[in-house]
Fold this sequence. Notes:
Layout: H1 2-28, H2 34-65, H3 68-95, H4 98-119, H5 124-152, H6 158-187, H7 189-208, H8 224-240, H9 242-272, H10 280-304, H11 310-328, H12 334-361, H13 368-397, H14 399-418, H15 421-424
Helix pairs in contact: 2-3, 2-5, 2-6, 2-7, 3-5, 3-8, 3-13, 4-5, 4-7, 5-13, 6-7, 6-10, 6-12, 8-9, 8-13, 9-10, 9-12, 9-13, 9-14, 10-12, 11-12, 11-14, 13-14
Amino acid sequence: MQAVARAARERSHLRGAWIGQMAIGSALAPLRRSDFRRLWIAQTVSIVGDKINQVALSIMVYRLTGSLAQMGLVFAITFLPAALFGLVAGPFVDRWDRRRTMITADLVRACLVIAIPFVVPFGMWAVYALAFCSATVSLFFEPSRMALVPSVVEQDELMAANSLDMTTSSIAELLGIGFAGALVAGVGPSPAFFLDGATFIISALFVFAVRHRAVRREVAPMGLDVVWRDLRTGLARIRDDDVLRGLLITYAAMALVGGAAITLSILLALDVLRNSGLADALRITVVDLSTTAGLLVGSIAIGIGGPGRAGRKYLSGILAFGVLMVSLSFVKDIRIAAVVLFTLGIANEFFGIPMLTLMQQNTEDESRGRVFAVRMTLTRVAAVIGLAGAGFAAQVYGVAPMIMFVGVVAACVGLFGFLTPALREA
Length: 426
């Protein structure tokens, strides 16, 4: 009897190991495709470059001006192009060859960031102008990349591909910030911009190696009438599709909530958890690392989980995010806060990655750039409003009540989505 039981346990263990290997293999399947692998490497290098730019630019501006307000201004400037031109970028992305658009965007951004140290003698306005231009060019890169991914992987690999993208982003941001800080501390901000430019060139080389070629289309001259017509077509495409319309409404609401949650988590560390015995900077670090670790685990878990029931995963992630935010409003201990924030990070990826997958699956290739440009514009504007508005609201109503309010709003968004059949069954 003992031998039979032992054999059964061994079979169960082998079956579990086999299922685990199959799940991990499915999550990594997109990397077996050379074109996706090249795009994935390009993205990783580019994210590290973005962090170098962020750290170098903030330190350069602060050293030159001694003003925190000026440092905040330069980051606000990098968000401005999305609000001004984000929608307009979509029609160009859909009419241009996406691979060439990405290569051109990388090379132009390389020139812009390398030029930053050379324009400093002309004044801060020149630095701000280059930062603005670089952010504007980025508007063409990201929608092109997201629109290109479905063309280089199979449909049932999209969830895994987006999971890998998000996992890469989390790891690259963690490593990139540390590397950028050490680099700028060691060589100063000016040389760091040269390395940042090199990352864009490396990214362009990997995109250049992508073998996929888009079907040639008849391209009309891109006058304002053509751009406006294409933009209206893209907006109509979203309006007339129940899944896309529901996704953009709910995700824009969650971008507002997510922006507020970022501000409120920092205020939680500074205000509510101030009696933890840790210094301000250390409390903020604990909050940030807990959330980022959750994002990393969530992005891996959603990829292992497979491509099925994306709509329900999306809405369940939103609902879980809301419930966790409400629970966070009662937390007074930093150790419990770290656990809740880690879980919040996981929930964030369980609605973020399925959202990207559903948008890719429900949009035809010729309008995908416009749809992603609309999504990028709406979410960035909503996130900025949430980031700024939460601080003012917390000043008036308190941090904990605002955390609870944001959680209730997120839960309502999730419930609204479950009551929308097209979104629930997507």
